[in-house]
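Bench log, entry 3. Co-assembly request; chain sequences pasted below exactly as received.
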Amino acid sequence: MAHDTEVLVLGGGSTGCGIARDLAMRGLEVTLVERGNLTDGTTGRMHGLLHSGGRYAVSDQASAVECIEENEILREIAGHCVELTGGLFVQRPEDPDDYFREKLEGCRDCDIPARVLSGREAREVEPYLAKDVKRAIQVPDGAVDPFRLCVANAIDAENYGARIETHAEVIDLLRDGDDIYGVTVRHDSGPGKHTHKTPGTTEDITAEYVVNATGAWAGQIGAMADLDVEVRPSKGVMTIMNVRQVDTVINRCRPKGDADIIVPHETTAILGTTDEEVSDPDDYPEEKWEVDMMIDTLSELVPILEEARTIRSFWGVRPLYEPPGRGTKDPTDITRDFFLLDHAERDGVSGMSSIVGGKFTTYRAMAEEISNHVCDQLGVRASCATAKEALPGSENLAVLEEGMDDFGLRSPIARRSKQRLGSRSQEVLETDDPNPVVCQCEGVTRAEVQDAIEQSGSDLNAVRIRTRASMGNCQGGFCCANMANELHPEYDEETTREALDELFQERWKGERHALWGEQLSQAMLNYALHATTMNRDNDPASRTEGVDYGVFDSGAQTASPARSDGGKRTDGGDRADGSRSSSDLRSDGGER
Amino acid sequence: MSDAEQPMDDHVPGEEQGFEPIEVFPEAEDMDLRPGADNCYKCSTCDTNCPVAEVDDEFPGPKFQGPEQWRLKRQEDHDIDESVMKCSNCMRCDSACPSEVPLSQMHNTARAEYVEENMSKLSREYWRNRMLSNYRKLAPLAATFPRTANFVMGLSATQWMGEKVMGIASEREFPEFATQTFRAWWTERGGNDTSRERARAARARRGEETENPHKRIAYFHGCYSNYNTPEVAKALVRVYEHLGYAVMVPEQSCSGTPMFANGMLEDARRAAETNVRELADAIENGADIVASCSSCSMSIRQEYPELFDFEGTEGVAANTWDAVEYLRVHEDLKDELEGTAVDAEFAYHAPCHARNQGLDGQTVEVLSAIDGIDVEDVGDSCSGISGTYGWKEENYETSMKIGEEMFEHMEDAEATTGLTECPTCSMQMGHGTGYEITHTLEVLEAALVD
Ligand SMILES: Cc1cc2nc3c(=O)[nH]c(=O)nc-3n(C[C@H](O)[C@H](O)[C@H](O)COP(=O)(O)OP(=O)(O)OC[C@H]3O[C@@H](n4cnc5c(N)ncnc54)[C@H](O)[C@@H]3O)c2cc1C
Ligand code: SF4
Ligand code: SF4
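Structure output for the full assembly:
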């Protein structure tokens, strides 16, 4: 039977995108389907730590070795997604000395460069560390932008001929006896680039081999073909600070604990995280105490966090997997290793493997191993090149660093734009047209927003993850409308409005968890601004019925029993049309 | 980074018992103000109050220059936008912000970083700015030969040289130097001892306790009233003595205002160190500090504690006053002025730095107690000169554009004499209207002292 594609990859997280790139580079024909945006799952909701391996140097040395190897590779091939911040494992007076020593020995065993700093030296590196920190181990941890990295993988896969379908949810596996030969997907808006409001369609995509890389959702996919994939989703909270209190990754050096890492991420610092098993990766409680605990605990390391402004919090679910029969109770004890479940071997059903577990830092190595497996299955002999070939945006970064061109932008904006775009800077930023700043908090210009729209269509959340626009302290209050404006006239008014609503809702979703102090002021100002300048508290344009202009002339005829307008009110009381589809908070792309 | 020889015992290098890490921010230039950006919720009130942004489209305004730029920065980054040099340091944004964003501290620190990293030490701008901001260093020379200096500065060839060689706007007239500095006058007059005597005599005349250790002030005269307008300084001395205060004139350096504005934070630090030391001494001796120049008092009260942490900085800041403000608080000025008369009309401009200290209303109120006087406030616009800002050829036009509103209002007012507390505002007022400009203390002197 002729198939639509050789390999079909399910899931557009780091794992799926990494596999798609790897296989496409080996010359295979690849299609990837993702139900939301790229990074919509765990990848867009992770901490952003490019592990040096230090974290696993005591508990899981195999992982640690893999981390430091991949850490070094990613710095080379994905320079524009990685910031070489360095990291510190900081010991407070009450933290055990034994563990500190074990950590240091572990790092050395795993060839992770490690150096001991006195408390004072550590505070020279990071002045906001608590005065009483005892000492620290310096390791080459880094910060990584999961959005940019994932998108770069997808772009490169496309460059090698892959088809990437976002907003395409797998609703069924096509199974013929003991063979899986494809999936049925529902397109949110028809195949191709995402446009709001285009009517959805379903499509059967057949393939010689299916790779289930849906992470925490792998069990749900498996169930579509009556396969048991025992993922144990475990949630973790992360809180985003408005500014970087630290420029180095700060880890607490103690055996195990929640809330023990601060990662400087772009303009912000992210506090994390916790580990708690949940039953449904799409529906779990997001609780205030989790955020409070995070801030309180990490303030022991960096006291100014107590007073600092947070701009939002978000949760992610780890796709933890435990081979049958281990019965580990505490999710923190479940291995962070990844597992390749070949359903032919396991369940006697051919044509599909599932990938579960793992971590972001090692996505490339995972993808390599899985791609090897897929090639074996298909009898293809081709070797992996992903460790050597730079991702789009990271070619010739050294040349870029030397380049002084600011493209007519103010220097901090030029600097930030170039950091995001890497070697694509010139192609994107060089323009004869006016290039105003669209998002002031993050310094994103029109040219960059337009470039993202070209890539991803009318989905402003997809624009957001590509550019960081609306991810700063106003959380979209000032810039969402500007971003939506950029869609017009290519997209019509209705599409533009819907895109604006969807983006603004997504921003609000995380900001809800930061409503005190400065961010509360911000939210109030955002509200006032949207209500008074765009009428968004009661926008007549979002009504399905027309506005009854008559009542403006003569005043509301409340006394009149025979109302001709069918009870419509213009004061915002009546919104029966429910035109804001704000309840759909899931399809919102990654967080931050 | 690997360091295999590192001993693996528990000894922490350099961390002896009881060690207290010192000086996290040894230098203001290294100060990390990113957390200051937390307070900004982007309302843009500061932008709408910025006089430079109003007339110069190229200037991004205080919100960008302050919190946004700081937030976009990384610790190691040194890419402060050059537009920071367009900020006149009028500090209006500071008082406009409803959310206590440390705007001028951010501007000052960013400007210092810009100058340090980006401005070539060989460039004309650098030396011009350094010369303008270190005006005090040049002034003594000029004051030694005031007539020659005035003559040379006035020559059109010199002014042309100024513009071409140094970038100083040729439209500006250099301030005239007095034939005798205030300090020379003070010494000649017998210094602190004479003042103590006169104060005692005044107290006796006023029927007060002749010994009153509380009626003691240390005068921070600043550069301009020393070298250029000693009559203002003398007026202060006479008014205070008349009211029974002993005046001391401590050693002092430039307040630093022009240096902050030019990003010469190192120069400012040196000056501030002297000032804090000397003024702290004076406070120790029971004096409060008063200044006749609103930028000097602003600098000591607000900028010193924001930028420096010498021993005593906070105490000096807390005990420094504007000279008229001090009298309003400690004396019953209305009562003192009752029955006095000065026959004059003034067009009054409140300097931005007085406005920032909440002092913009006091002059009109205080002087209204004098018979025959008519003081008209010409509104809350900025004069546009902001210290050395308007002296630079590239800022001249912007500076005059900002000042336009004030010039118009002055011309609309009845009076043909100007009144203000800031020396550079006074130059700008004179430059734009051709009026004589007086200081509030001189009017008080005319009313109180015969
Ligand atoms: C709180 C937290 C913090 C973390 N921090 C770090 C860290 O700092 N460093 C690190 O290296 N790792 C970290 N990790 C781990 C890392 O984030 C994950 O291991 C990694 O992102 C998993 O990627 P993935 O592609 O396997 O899964 P996902 O990113 O979840 O990708 C699966 C995709 O499948 C899609 N999907 C689901 N159902 C369907 C369907 N029916 N049809 C189509 N598509 C579907 C989802 O939308 C999703 O996009 C963290 C994890 C968590 C939870
Ligand atoms: S100090 Fe004055 S000129 Fe500078 S940004 Fe603030 S308001 Fe504008
Ligand atoms: S006035 Fe204050 S809060 Fe408002 S934008 Fe300016 S700095 Fe931010």
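Residues 178 and 348 of chain A are 7 Å apart (CA to CA). The first strand of chain A starts at residue 5 and ends at 10.
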